[in-house]
């Protein structure tokens, strides 16, 4: 059993309608990352200075040293950038979600008071603004608990949203394990919220975005100036707004940093974007918590039966062993191969089964062809077809033939098998009696090589139609 843990399918071609309040075509969500005072610093007990997301070209951590320039840039964010952003959003009367690093909030009494007076949501951004990728799970678990404790002390309330940012592979699971979060945002994999089952419990995920994040002012390729930033934000908004008008509303997340877009030359691009979206109707500007509450109400988690990739082998083969006629070995091999969430739909599971059919030897594939019954043949007359074949033949009226039609099918079946060595196979659900007979007459003239390929393709088509009848 080889299960691929990543979900490469998501909502697929048919995402749910967001039903944003007021029939909005888009939800635009502003996040202010408050990290100043929580970054790497030997003063904070860290091993080196900070080097991430600052206006120092080629910055690198300095082991056991403070970095005066980097520290000063973070201080700019707290001393000046924050207040510039605070004025922008309060004057525009737009709600904001703050991703607040717990230790940074503990060093920012005035800024914290201003956030709360403005009614902004304050979500947790972890204990410290440090890298977690190599952090042992027990250590990260402890830091999550301490972040919640300090956040509660600083703000007076436990955080209901979480975003680590510099996360590990364990972060989402560990935060869900801690419990009590209306949403977690440590993913970048969709334009809509979604539910994820973690340790048997549903957790709402509200994906974030780095493409619209002001961090690109100091990373490459990035934004050189506010105008470039505005253009990218506008293009993103316009695309998503148009999708909403077409009936598929989405969400746009903007990540902001006090020390980055809080710089005056950059802020103008953000202000221009704020003014731009205020000129539209049907735009919802919520906090992330408001999105979480809306989604939980409009699209509550609904338990699903066990998905194909999660079944044990015996049950998987019991359910899907007859998809390829009388050939359960195909399902057995598919279960043994790499499967994951992308294989839990009709198309996805068909791909897994079809792959095994195509990888089989010519002799094995021939055996699959020979496992199929004649159309309107003796097995059908004796009612000895599989349930799937019985229903399929009945769908084209092959269970109610005139004597002349039965004689024609018998003649063609006999000639076909004598020539090719396997029964005539066609996805009867795609046809009626007349088109089946026309195709039968035409295909019997094929070469053996061409007809083997054609019959194999029809076997695959039959399997897909069978799966579509039982899976989304």
Automatic annotation (TrEMBL):
Keywords associated with the record: Purine metabolism
Keyword DNA-binding: no
UniProt keyword Zinc-finger, yes or no: no
Matching PROSITE patterns: NODB
One Pfam family matching this protein: OHCU_decarbox
Residue intervals of the NodB homology domain: 68-286
Classification via CDD domains: CE4_PuuE_SpCDA1 (cd10977)
Family: Belongs to the polysaccharide deacetylase family.
NCBIfam families, per database record: UHCUDC, uraD_N-term-dom
Reported function: Is involved in generating a small heat-stable compound (Nod), an acylated oligomer of N-acetylglucosamine, that stimulates mitosis in various plant protoplasts.
Protein name in the entry: Chitooligosaccharide deacetylase
